[in-house]
């Protein structure tokens, strides 16, 4: 059996790298890190031991699932493909921050402290707090 030490990164596909930089950097609070020159557009962020890699849809043609349309009627719901961030603070504080940014959100309905929004490209994003206490 392999010994996995951590999930290293998540890739999010977007249409506009600058909108993603603003959302994940300024709104979410991730730190942008150096990215190797791959010949494709993108940015990388880090938070503790994990990374978030942003790729631009137009640069990924021919890479299979990344060609999934961004049409809301065709993409999976929030219980499907999404990225989740463990956050300090309360859901109320996170909700107030998103409201101040003009970002619509909804509170999760499974009894755990979570809320959902979309990034500028329509990717579902989850923010959660206190799961360690809720699941103990």
Task: Record the SSE blueprint.
Elements: E1 9-14, H1 17-27, E2 31-33, E3 42-47, E4 50-56, E5 83-86, H2 91-100, E6 105-107, E7 114-118, E8 124-128, H3 131-134
Parallel strand pairs: 1-4, 5-8
Antiparallel strand pairs: 2-3, 3-4, 6-7, 7-8
What key phrases describe this protein's structure?
single chain; 136 residues; alpha/beta; 2,3-Dihydroxybiphenyl 1,2-Dioxygenase, domain 1; four-stranded mixed β-sheet
Please describe what this structure looks like:
- This protein is α/β, with parallel strands linked by helices.
- The chain has one domain: 2,3-Dihydroxybiphenyl 1,2-Dioxygenase, domain 1 (Roll), CATH 3.10.180.
- The protein is 18% helix and 29% strand.
- It is globular, with a radius of gyration of 16 Å.
- 16% of the residues are buried.
What is the CATH topology assignment? 2,3-Dihydroxybiphenyl 1,2-Dioxygenase, domain 1
Tell me the name of the CATH homologous superfamily: 2,3-Dihydroxybiphenyl 1,2-Dioxygenase, domain 1
Q: Please describe the biggest sheet, giving its number of strands, its sense, and whether it closes into a barrel.
A: 4 strands, mixed
Strand order of the largest sheet: 1-4-3-2
Pairing-aware structural class of the strands and helices? alpha/beta
- How would you describe the shape? globular
Helix content: 10-25%
**How many individual domains?**
1
Question: Quick check: average pLDDT?
Answer: 79
- Annotated CATH architecture: Roll
> Count the helices. How many?
3
As residue ranges, the low-confidence spans are: 62-79
Strand content: 25-35%
H-E order: EHEEEEHEEEH
Query: Which CATH C-level class is it?
Result: Alpha Beta
Distance between the termini: 28 Å
What Rg, in angstroms, do the CA atoms define?
16 Å
Number of strands: 8
